[in-house]
Design brief:
The complex is a heterodimer of chains A (about 350) and B (about 170). Helix content of chain A is about 70%, strand content about 0%. Chain A contains 15 helices and 1 strand. By secondary structure, chain B is an alpha+beta fold. In chain B, the strands form 4 sheets. A two-stranded antiparallel ribbon of chain B has the order 1-8. Chain B has a two-stranded antiparallel sheet with strand order 2-3. In chain B, strands 4-5 form a two-stranded antiparallel sheet. In chain B, about 55% of the residues are buried. The C terminus of chain B is likely disordered. Classes of the chains: A mainly alpha (about 350), B alpha+beta (about 170). At the A-B interface, helix 1, helix 2, strand 1, helix 5 and helix 14 of A face helix 1, strand 2, helix 2 and helix 3 of B. Strand 1 of chain A pairs parallel with strand 2 of chain B.
């Protein structure tokens, strides 16, 4: 300590800086903690973004294949010919809009300036995502609105209708992949930097979206008394869902293997899932609820022709899909810079210090 | 700011924590070190490491910011966050490889070191002189002297005299 007399400002600071405050100001190195800046609300944003996009892709594809729902048996209001059955399958853009609303509530005191989030698309994936989501929500909502309110219009302008649908589906694909690209752009977090992650999120968007549409179809069938009409597209989705789940499982395995073969922070992230604090969420939630259980149930439901089994499978996929987003955020450990690795190993003990010093000096 | 950067010398830090309290007070009016832009790690019984923003030449925090609230100053010497334009998305927090950009839950915006407009509080209150605000020429001279001294002594200690300013991200 200096023996020189302290300035009044410094004396005042010393008086205000109580031992308790100073003790909180100095702590152990913390370079190996998972990020906590993006939490449950961001998981919800990523999940609903993917779910809505996946549901829209599946619902529109069913229409293209000629096994879509509707036309609804009767208009609920007056003589206007609404095709209200479409509401049960074309809700994807609104789910994504709900996810974007969750993001707004995650923001800070200037949250109502959220519209400025698109100002930096040149380098920021969050800004690019703003425009991708905006395009999908607007175009998807337009497709849904026409399908429900003006069911005759597509027949009068089929080319324009196909173009609108195709562009909306393209933005839906963009939304599903973007949720992974946003995380991948954080290049100092090895668990997110994986090139597999956007495709894993796309597969999860399709599996959760399919099951969301199945739930919508079953609800429509129950409400409208049109079970057989609603069950036809359900059978189609049930036929494809095991393939989507197998693809998702393969991508998940590639993602984990990539982490285990990668950098130290990546191996730590994989360890959190495989045997660490997130093992129950990974094995029970992501592997069990999102993949294994619904795979078995969808096959059983198909054989048994049981809507109840299909409903359980759908709820399982939807829960597991949310846990996948939570799990990926929870293992976001930043790759420590060389000097920080050295600091960390010094705190751990002298045995590793020499190797770390050599590493830091490289 | 006039080609100056913060230079940290861990060998001189006594771990008093005053820099963190002074920083928090200067920026928020609150002495809570959680709101400070400088962190002090206790490495062992003798050594501490004050850590603050490196003001990277290619700042990943500014690249990730969707609103351009986090940006490089026109002279390229500082990376600052405009709290009026920050929406609090925390993309900069997640993007920073050093964890320096942080979310101030009380203020509702992300925050980081801005050199206090040219007179850093952490430097003013650091009596051992572990945190200094020096011209970039001086900092590089300091680094060259340290490396030369370490080579002469046959031992390189990379933690002594870490340059906090002008490091490329991931350095």
């Amino acid at each position: 300590m200096s023996a020189e007399p302290q300035s009044p400002a410094l004396q005042d600071l010393r008086a205000r800086a109580t031992p308790a405050l100073l003790a909180r100001a100095v702590g152990p190195p913390r370079p190996r903690e998972a990020q906590r800046a993006w939490d449950l609300l961001i998981a919800g944003y990523l999940y609903l973004g993917g779910l809505g996009a996946g549901a829209f892709i599946v619902a529109t594809s069913l229409g293209w294949l000629g096994v879509g729902v509707g036309p609804s048996p009767a208009s609920p209001v007056g003589a206007w010919e609404w095709d209200w059955a479409q509401l049960f399958v074309l809700w994807g853009p609104f789910a994504t809009a709900l996810g974007a609303t969750l993001l707004i509530f995650h923001l800070g005191r200037n949250r109502w300036r959220f519209w400025s989030a698109g100002f930096n698309p040149r380098t920021s994936w969050m800004a690019r995502g703003f425009w991708i989501l905006l395009a999908f929500i607007a175009l998807g909502a337009a497709v849904a609105a026409v399908s429900v309110l003006l069911p005759d219009w597509p027949g009068r302008a089929p080319a324009a209708w196909r173009v609108l649908q195709a562009v909306a589906v393209a933005t839906a694909f963009g939304t599903a992949v973007y949720t992974g690209l946003l995380l991948r752009s954080m290049r100092y977090i090895p668990a997110w930097r994986s090139s597999v992650l956007p495709w894993l999120f796309l597969a999860s968007a399709l599996s959760t979206g399919s099951m969301g549409v199945v739930l919508g179809l079953l609800a429509y069938g129950a409400l409208a008394g049109a079970s057989e009409q609603a069950l036809e597209p359900v059978r189609g989705i049930d036929a494809a869902e095991p393939l989507v789940l197998v693809a998702e499982a393969a991508l998940l395995a590639a993602f984990v293997v990539g982490l285990r073969r990668g950098s130290p922070a990546g191996r730590l992230s994989a360890g959190l899932w495989l045997g660490g604090s997130w093992r129950l969420g990974f094995w029970g939630g992501i592997v069990g609820l999102a993949l294994a259980l619904p795979f078995a149930l969808v096959l059983a439901g198909r054989a048994l022709e049981s809507p109840a089994v299909t409903v359980v499978a759908a709820l399982s996929v939807l829960t597991g899909g949310f846990l996948l987003r939570c799990g990926v955020l929870a293992i976001g450990i930043t790759e420590a810079a060389p000097l920080y690795r050295l600091a960390c190993r010094r705190a751990e003990g002298p045995a590793t210090e020499g190797r770390a010093a050599a590493e830091a000096g490289r | 700011m006039n080609g100056k950067v913060i230079l940290v010398d861990q060998a001189l830090c006594d771990g008093c924590g005053l820099c963190a309290v002074a920083c928090a007070l200067a920026h928020t009016g609150d002495a809570d070190p959680e709101r400070s832009h400088i962190t002090v790690w206790r490495l062992d019984d003798r050594r501490c490491a004050p850590l603050t923003c490196h003001h990277c030449e290619a700042p990943s925090c500014a690249r990730a910011c969707p609103t351009k609230a986090c940006r490089q100053d026109t002279d390229g010497r500082r990376v600052v966050i405009d709290e009026r334009a920050c929406i609090g998305c925390r993309a900069c927090n997640v993007a920073c490889p050093f964890g320096h950009a942080h979310y101030d839950g009380v203020a509702g915006v992300s925050a980081k070191c801005d050199y206090c407009g040219g007179e850093p509080e952490c430097v003013r209150v650091c009596e051992p002189g572990a945190v200094r605000y020096v011209h970039t020429d001086e900092s590089s001279l300091h680094r060259r002297r340290r490396v030369a001294l370490a080579e002469a002594l046959g031992r390189l200690d990379p933690l002594a005299g870490e340059e906090a300013g002008h490091a490329a991200a991931g350095d």
